[in-house]
Amino acid sequence: SLHMEVEGMEDEGPSSQSELPQSEGVYVQSERQASLLLESSAPVENVFVDKKAVDKLTEGLLSHYLPDLQSSKRALQELTQNQLILLDTLDQEVTKFRECNALLDLNSLFTEAKVYHNKLVNIRKEMIMLHEKTTKLKKRSLKLQQQKQKEALEKEQQREKELERERQLIAKPAKRT
Q: What ranges does the record list as Basic and acidic residues composition bias (predicted)?
């Protein structure tokens, strides 16, 4: 393993990730990690690398991996967008199911209301029928009462006639002249 010191790298070119385009920031970080890995190896000898060679190697590495990573990034963005669309659709379906359940509850309430309405209609019919029966019974009772009064009056008149007849039948003493 070689220990490499890159001469003049800090003075030349962009040195921070913020100065590079966003997609290339990942590669600079990988380059730094590789450089640190090489530096942390046990030093065998000092080797000086030309800045142009480092730039060419970096450019080659980026040109090799960047298209795949950019297409992967686009695919991930598309998947994220599709996921958001699916979540929105799912939310709409959940809302539809809730509305459906609310409609089922309403339907059961209307059915129950219809049952109770029918019960009330039947009770009303029964009350009307009972009212008619009581009215007929009251009329009949009044007729019977009038009939009894008439019969009682006729009986009383009959008895008075009989008493009057008895009085007339009772012998009257003859008047003496």
A: 148-169
